[in-house]
């Protein structure tokens, strides 16, 4: 009877489960789709929202994720966004139809996202060990001649 009154939260070693699983779900969804199904849309108006892009680009196929890149300090759009489709064919269709089109008064550019070399191996490489010494020849002392003339 006493154990049911205590509850699990009263134990010092118990930590309640973390309910913020959408981040993990989004990360796992990114891994399921090939990189060739991700496009970047450049030269967007700064007031463009993710919902607007979702509506405009959903005509070409099912969209997994729309991410507008924003400045970390001002939270203002940087004018480009990433759109992830479920298939490569949908991404290519969007690229062919929307590249160099007018979007809210601006000519947008649509391209496939390319894999960077450090993305293949995981995180960026870190330096390890002491810095390398340069092979700079040391100054050799020359014979000093005392000449006062």
SSE diagram, text form:
Blueprint: H1 2-6, H2 22-32, E1 38-42, H3 50-57, E2 63-70, E3 77-85, H4 88-98, E4 102-103, E5 106-107, E6 109-112, H5 117-120
Antiparallel strand pairs: 1-3, 1-6, 2-3, 4-5
Account of the protein in words:
By secondary structure, the chain is of the alpha+beta class. About 25% of the residues lie in helices and about 20% in strands. The chain contains five helices and six strands. The strands form two sheets. A four-stranded antiparallel β-sheet has the order 2-3-1-6, with helices on both faces. Strands 4-5 form a two-stranded antiparallel sheet. A hairpin with a 6-residue loop joins strand 2 (about 65-70) and strand 3 (about 75-85). The protein starts with a helix and ends in a 29-residue tail after the last helix. Residues about 20-30 have low confidence and may be disordered. One of its GO terms (molecular function) is RNA binding. Keywords: RNA-binding.
Computed Rg: 28 Å
Q: Alpha-carbon distance between the termini?
A: 109 Å
Count of helical stretches: 5
* Model regions low in confidence, pLDDT < 50 over at least 5 residues: 20-30
Task: Assign the structural class, choosing from mainly alpha, mainly beta, alpha/beta, alpha+beta, or little secondary structure.
Answer: alpha+beta
The average pLDDT score comes to: 76
Give a quick account of the main beta sheet: strands, pairing sense, barrel closure.
4 strands, antiparallel
């Amino acid at each position: 009877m006493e154990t049911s009154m205590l509850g699990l939260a009263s134990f010092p070693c118990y930590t309640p489960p973390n309910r913020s699983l959408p981040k993990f779900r989004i990360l796992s969804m990114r891994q399921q789709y090939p990189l060739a199904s991700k496009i970047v849309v450049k030269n967007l108006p700064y007031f463009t929202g993710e919902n607007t892009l979702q509506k405009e680009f959903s005509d070409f196929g099912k969209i997994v994720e729309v991410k507008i890149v924003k400045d970390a300090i001002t939270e203002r759009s940087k004018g480009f966004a990433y759109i992830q489709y479920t298939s490569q064919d949908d991404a290519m269709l969007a690229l062919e139809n929307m590249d160099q089109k007018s979007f809210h008064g601006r000519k947008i550019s649509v391209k496939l996202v390319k894999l960077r070399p450090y993305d293949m191996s995981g995180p960026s490489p870190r330096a390890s060990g002491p810095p390398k010494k340069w092979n700079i020849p040391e100054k050799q002392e020359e014979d000093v001649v005392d000449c006062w003339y």
